[in-house]
Amino acid sequence: MLLCSDLYNHMPSHLKPINHVSPSLCFFLFLVMMIYGNNIVVILISLGKGFIAINTQIATAPEDMIRLEKPTVEDGSAMWELVEHSTLDQNSAYKYIMMCEYFAETCVVAKVDKELVGFITAFIPPERPDVVFVWQIGVDSSQQGKGLASKLLNELIHREACEDIRFVEATVTPTNKASQALFRKLARTHNTTCDVSEFFTKDLFPNDTHEEELNFRIGPIERA
């Protein structure tokens, strides 16, 4: 039987709780849960009557951390490949390379080590300098459900190039509930409105399979 001090000393350093637990305060220290998807370690102690959570810690190795940065032209093909393996509308590889070259200030890529796992392509319409238009958001299947799309949007909004931005706009099809929820969440996060209106009607597209595109306008957004 290990006392909590013994168990603590045998734990890997990157899994130890932030605050040392004194042996005099507990009988046993249990590692009861490790959720590998979010790399969350929960430590519980026994105090005689049930268990009390005393600490949580993100146990993510530095090399596994997601970096958000401006894209380079070398990222264009990886963006294209990510979209190819998703349900997103795939544009030409040339389009992604062009966005990386000429709109890097308003595009964001997410990387784990050197692997691209997400991106945003966006631009500021010349005639509306207070708007950033989000063209496309892509997240690799390995990172879905972890809030990466929201982090990408937040990174975009706080870019120096977007310091005069007060509105975020994007077009979303009626059946794309995930994107609709994402932009409504953005509005709630910034305590502002999300206005939805007709934009590109179905008859504008060259085939009958493309849905209409609704315009989502989030704002005004106040920068902290």
UniProtKB/TrEMBL annotation:
Any one GO biological process: ectoine biosynthetic process
Pathway this chain belongs to: Amine and polyamine biosynthesis; ectoine biosynthesis; L-ectoine from L-aspartate 4-semialdehyde: step 2/3
Domain N-acetyltransferase intervals: 66-224
Database matches in Gene3D superfamilies: 3.40.630.30
EC number(s) on file: 2.3.1.178
Reactions it catalyzes: L-2,4-diaminobutanoate + acetyl-CoA = (2S)-4-acetamido-2-aminobutanoate + CoA + H(+)
First-tier enzyme category under EC: transferase
Keywords: Acyltransferase, Membrane, Transferase, Transmembrane, Transmembrane helix
Membrane-crossing residue ranges in chain numbering: 20-47
Domain of life from the UniProt record: Bacteria
PROSITE patterns for this protein: GNAT (PS51186)
Family to which the UniProt record says this protein belongs: Belongs to the acetyltransferase family. EctA subfamily.
Name of the molecule in the record: L-2,4-diaminobutyric acid acetyltransferase
Organism: Paraliobacillus ryukyuensis
Phylogenetic placement of the source organism: Bacteria, Bacillati, Bacillota, Bacilli, Bacillales
